[in-house]
């Protein structure tokens, strides 16, 4: 892949003298959806697919961004002195946002750069292509400028960039999972305090299969921010009767005892998902540690039902993929993953059933939705690195 990136760079910028190549992964969340901004637990892992960048420092302060995924956009130019959001800069607002956020945290890049990105994560799939670009850019800036910050700081600055520069009110999970990825492990993260532990993913005779709905969605224009504000309102009402900081502080029983104070059926449903999903995530990690993969799968299934019925972020595409998956032989668990409203599902499928799973679910999906889904058998990989 390094040679491919050098070739891309040469095509765009003429030669490869002094060019360095870097990689940051995408991520998939195994369970714990829409809990990360509600002070709950999440259980994501980094993937071996992700975003690559070939970069060379400039002598001036100019920034030249190019994506091999969006060749029609050409080179998008900016400057370290003009780091403002511009709609016409499209995808380049993600790396620009990180450089801006670094400056806001007193890390000032001193030289511009020519940079070519290429991602083998499907765009708009919900496998965090935007967070992958952000973490990658933060990692490159650290390397080129000798900045003194760790991978957790990169994830926090990347989240800050997405929130404040790109206007997406995301939680910390995506950036953290990408920055802190560890091969063959998922990260059990308490988003209320960033305490985390690595848990080995031992699937035995099964693999992770991602099904991409190919329904494009953008986080910013989805109902993501609306769901977040609904949870904040439910929390404010609960706080009048119980001493909590986040919805993640509640057990299922405590929620049931106090939910009447919320007084709004929609808000009760949103909060119920946040509370129960957090507990499901805790139980899922316990099941994995006890090598009870069947229980882990059952909790994945329950997660999807809650996201469909209480949080209402699935939609016909994701529901078709998951409900079709549940009917297949050899499927241990299946659920939507990511923000919802399109994107992907994550499935644990027995090795000898993978081919029939892809064929049968793909057929059912195309018949009902009218276009194809894509399937990826994925492996769990490490965080960002220089190649």
Topology of helices and strands:
Elements: H1 2-13, E1 20-29, E2 41-42, E3 44-57, E4 62-67, E5 76-79, H2 93-104, E6 113-119, H3 129-145, H4 151-164, H5 173-179, E7 185-190, E8 195-200, E9 206-212, H6 224-238, H7 252-258, H8 265-289, H9 293-309, H10 315-326, E10 331-337, E11 344-350, H11 354-369, E12 374-378, E13 385-386
Parallel strand pairs: 4-6
Antiparallel strand pairs: 1-3, 1-13, 2-7, 3-6, 4-5, 7-8, 9-11, 9-12, 10-11
What features would you describe in this structure?
The model has no long low-confidence stretch (mean pLDDT 93). With 387 residues, this protein is of the alpha+beta class. The radius of gyration is 21 Å and the shape is globular. It is 40% helix and 21% strand. The strands form 3 sheets. A 6-stranded mixed sheet has the order 5-4-6-3-1-13. It has a domain at 2-201: 2-Layer Sandwich (Ribosomal Protein S5, domain 2), CATH 3.30.230. The longest helix has 25 residues, at 265-289. Helix 2 packs across helix 3 (129-145), helix 3 crosses helix 4 and helix 10 (315-326) packs antiparallel against helix 11. The chain is built from 11 helices and 13 strands.
């Amino acid at each position: 892949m390094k040679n491919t990136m050098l070739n891309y760079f040469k095509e765009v910028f003429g030669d490869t003298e002094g060019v360095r190549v870097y990689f940051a992964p995408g991520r998939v969340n195994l369970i714990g959806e829409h809990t990360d901004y509600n002070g709950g637990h999440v259980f994501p892992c980094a993937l071996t697919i992700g975003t690559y960048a070939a970069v060379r420092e400039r002598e001036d302060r100019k920034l030249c961004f190019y994506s091999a995924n969006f060749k029609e956009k050409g080179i998008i130019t900016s400057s370290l002195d003009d780091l403002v959001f511009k709609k016409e800069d499209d995808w380049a607002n993600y790396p620009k946002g990180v450089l801006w956020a670094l400056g806001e945290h007193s890390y000032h890049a001193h030289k511009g750069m020519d940079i070519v990105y290429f991602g083998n994560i499907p765009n708009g799939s919900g496998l965090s292509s935007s967070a992958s670009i952000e973490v990658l850019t933060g990692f490159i800036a650290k390397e080129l400028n000798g900045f003194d910050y760790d991978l957790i700081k990169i994830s926090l600055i990347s989240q800050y960039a997405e929130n404040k520069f790109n206007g997406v009110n995301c939680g910390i999970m995506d950036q953290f999972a990408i920055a802190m990825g560890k091969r063959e492990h998922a990260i059990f993260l308490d988003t209320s305090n960033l305490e985390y532990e690595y848990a080995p993913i031992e699937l035995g005779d099964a693999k992770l299969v991602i099904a991409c709905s190919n329904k494009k969605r953008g986080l910013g224009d989805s109902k993501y921010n609306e769901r977040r504000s609904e949870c904040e309102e439910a929390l404010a009402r609960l706080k009048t009767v119980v001493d909590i900081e986040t919805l993640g502080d509640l057990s299922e029983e405590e929620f049931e005892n106090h939910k009447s104070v919320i007084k709004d059926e929609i808000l009760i449903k949103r909060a119920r998902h946040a509370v129960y999903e957090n507990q499901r995530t805790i139980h899922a990690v316990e099941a994995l540690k006890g090598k009870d993969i069947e229980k882990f799968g059952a909790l994945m299934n329950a997660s999807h039902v809650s996201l469909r019925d209480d949080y209402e972020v699935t939609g016909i595409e994701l529901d078709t993929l998951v409900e079709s998956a549940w009917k297949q032989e050899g499927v241990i668990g299946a659920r939507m993953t990511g923000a919802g409203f399109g994107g992907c599902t994550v499935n644990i499928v027995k090795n000898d059933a993978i081919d029939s799973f892809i064929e049968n679910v793909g057929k059912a999906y195309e018949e009902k939705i009218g276009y194809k889904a894509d399937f990826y058998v994925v492996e769990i990989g490490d965080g960002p690195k220089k190649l």
